[in-house]
Amino acid sequence: MKKRMTQIFATAMFSLLLLMLVGCTEKKETKTQDENIKTIEAVLQNSLAGPSDELKKILEKESEEKFEALNQYEEKRFKDYFANETSYRDFVNNYGSRLMIQPNNEDYQFKIKKIEYEKVDPKDSVYNFSVELQFQREGSEKSEVGIVTGQANLTDEHKIEGMLIRTKDFWSSLMEETKENRDVYTKDGKALLIVAPDPSLSAGKPYGYVFHFTAPFETFKGKELAIYAYHQETGEKITGLSPETINEPSAGYSTLERFTATFTIPKSGVWRYEVVLDGEFYADVVFAVN
Fold first, then answer.
1. DSSP result, 212-280
2. Quick check: pTM over 0.90?
3. How far is CA 243 from CA 95, 170, 240, in A?
4. CA separation, residue 139 to residues 107, 192, 264 (Å)
5. Do the beta carbons of residue 159 and residue 39 sit within 8 Å?
6. Which of 128, 147, 148 has its CA nearest to residue 40?
7. Facing residues of 211 across strands?
8. Which of 196, 269, 174 is nearest to 229 (CA)?
9. Which H helix or E strand runs over 167?
10. What are the pLDDT digits (tens) for 92-132?
């Protein structure tokens, strides 16, 4: 009887130890997974949400100054999350702040709504992720949602040693939204700007444009008005009209109903023409240039 009780006690103790061991292992695995997810999420937030006001200001700087400012910006937001210099450099050269250049050029603001994670293999710290990304263009009341997927491989110290963010399909669908000609800019249900280009508009030659502003002249009086054009595929920027102080309405009108400008678009493609008033975005239109 005593021997049987000893066996039962030993079995119970073994089961208890086994349960404790399994519990500790599961707890350690959960903690590890949580730390890994925190790292991935921090990098995704810094990459896909924005562009921030700080980044917008940096992107307006001249080339040499911009390059140094971007380096500092990226080091501050990304470097601590990567395993080494190689993995960090690989990330910022392919993603990093680069992911916000096109949205900045197109006046889009991105916000992460939700991120879902899936561990690929229980033995390895490799995670697939799916990001639900909300985007809205400045001046538009309409917001939309797209999906960006990717994968991250982490070390035991919860640092990223490799990361992939698949943005190609997302950008393609986004560009489809802005690819057709749009000669009217509307805000709060009102048309603020209508632009009439030359019907034969093509690249490499100067063409005239008539900018029809609907707001009262007081909106523009004494302010600097400038016009810039952005190539949608490359992000190339040209100055159509350097900042010009508006002192008089259009000839024969009481407003800027027929504000004219002539400039050359250097190459074909879809271009977004942006009107800036005292350094701030005012309105834009989109044209396909042959």
1. EE-S-GGGTTTSEEEEEEEETTT--EEEEEEEEE--S-STTSSSSTTEEEEEE--S-EEEEEEEEETTE
2. no
3. 33, 34, 10
4. 9, 10, 26
5. yes
6. 128
7. 195, 259
8. 269
9. none
10. 888 888 888 778 777 789 999 999 999 998 788 899 999 99
